[in-house]
Structure formats: structure tokens, C-alpha cells
């Protein structure tokens, strides 16, 4: 297993075993990624069938709403609990947490732009471009999840104390191992 120094911290480039709370966050990614792949396909389909563009956009809108209902609680766990906890050790004004929060905001803005643009079917101004917001949001999150899994979560495993990890597990309502 190889480790690297980054701002005085060792970052494990091997397969780090994560505590229950960090593993819980990581385990939510495949479901989100599966949903994003479906969003990407639906967004592409919207562009390919101009005659049904509005109908397809409205169907895509329902899928985006369902996706956001799963994404928001996931990101709130990170932004509301994990990031502040890690920030005590690695800072919050520069570095990985700033990047992670920026990417959360960027992805949410993309999806919210799509939802705003499809809110009222009679006011859809440029239907041929609306699907691009969904594609941008998905692209941002695929990259973001990769960074979390390969950098942020292993970093969290290394910098958080056992007490911090227990607090995370409690916050995420993960039962203790017995």
C-alpha cells in the first residue's frame, strides 16, 4: 500500500478500509450513479426525438425530481456533518472541502436550472438545450464521487478520531457493530 503526503497528511492510494459512516456514504454512490446513467440516457433521448421533445423533457423532469430526493439527503450528510468535522483538521477555506462543496453547488445548480426551465411547459423557451443542464450535473457528480472515494473518504479515515467516527455513525443512524 502506497501513501503520499499532502499538506502534511498521508493520503492512502491503496484500498483503505473505511469506518462504517464513511463506508455508508460510499455505499450510497452506486445507487446515485445508476440513477445518473438513466438521466443521461433520458437526456440524450430528449435531444434525439425533437417531435416529442416537450413530452420527453417533462418525463426527464420527473426523473430529475426523483433523483434529487435521493441526492439531497446524501449531500446534506456530507455538507452538514462530514465536511465540518473534517474541517477541524484540514481547514475549510482552501483545499479538498472547498472543492467538494463547490462541486455540490455546481451539480445542484445544473439540476435546479433544468427544473426551473421545465417548470411550466408553456414557458419552455429553448427545449433543445435544457437537457444539457442534466448532462452537466451528472458529469460533475461522476467526477465528484470519484474524488470522494479515492481522496476525501480515505483522508477522513486517516484524520478523524474514533470519537468523530462514532459521532458520524450516530448522525447517519448507523447501528454500532456488536
Topology summary:
Layout: E1 3-6, E2 9-12, H1 20-48, H2 53-90, H3 96-117, H4 127-159, H5 162-171
Antiparallel strand pairs: 1-2
Question: Can you walk me through this structure?
Answer:
Helix content is 74%, strand content 4%. The radius of gyration is 19 Å and the shape is elongated. With 178 residues, the chain is mainly alpha-helical. Residues 1-13 have low confidence and may be disordered. It has helices at residues 20-48, 53-90, 96-117, 127-159, 162-171, and strands at residues 3-6, 9-12. Strands 1-2 form a two-stranded antiparallel sheet. The chain has a single domain, classed as Four Helix Bundle (Hemerythrin (Met), subunit A). The relative contact order is 0.19. A hairpin with a 2-residue loop joins strand 1 and strand 2 (9-12). InterPro entries: Hemerythrin-like. Residues 22-155 form the Hemerythrin-like domain. It holds the Pfam family Hemerythrin. This is Hemerythrin-like domain-containing protein.
CATH homologous superfamily descriptor:
nmb1532 protein domain like
In terms of per-residue confidence, which ranges show pLDDT below 50 for 5 or more consecutive residues?
Answer: 1-13
By CATH reckoning, the class would read Mainly Alpha
CATH architecture, please?
Up-down Bundle
Amino acid at each position: 500500500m502506497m501513501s503520499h503526503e499532502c499538506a502534511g497528511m498521508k493520503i492512502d492510494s491503496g484500498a483503505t478500509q473505511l469506518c462504517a459512516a464513511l463506508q455508508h456514504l460510499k455505499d450510497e454512490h452506486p445507487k446515485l450513479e445508476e440513477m445518473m446513467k438513466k438521466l443521461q440516457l433520458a437526456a440524450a433521448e430528449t435531444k434525439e426525438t425533437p417531435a416529442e421533445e416537450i413530452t420527453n423533457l417533462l418525463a426527464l423532469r420527473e426523473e430529475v425530481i426523483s433523483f434529487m430526493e435521493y441526492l439531497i439527503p446524501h449531500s446534506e450528510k456530507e455538507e452538514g456533518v462530514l465536511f465540518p468535522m473534517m474541517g477541524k483538521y484540514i481547514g475549510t477555506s482552501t483545499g479538498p472541502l472547498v472543492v467538494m462543496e463547490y462541486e455540490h453547488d455546481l451539480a445542484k445548480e445544473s439540476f435546479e436550472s433544468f427544473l426551473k426551465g421545465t417548470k411550466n411547459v408553456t414557458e419552455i423557451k429553448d427545449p433543445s438545450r435544457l437537457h444539457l443542464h442534466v448532462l452537466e450535473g451528472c458529469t460533475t457528480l461522476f467526477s465528484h464521487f470519484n474524488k470522494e472515494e479515492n481522496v476525501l473518504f480515505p483522508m477522513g479515515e486517516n484524520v478523524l478520531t474514533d470519537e468523530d467516527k462514532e459521532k458520524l455513525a450516530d448522525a447517519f443512524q448507523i447501528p454500532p457493530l456488536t
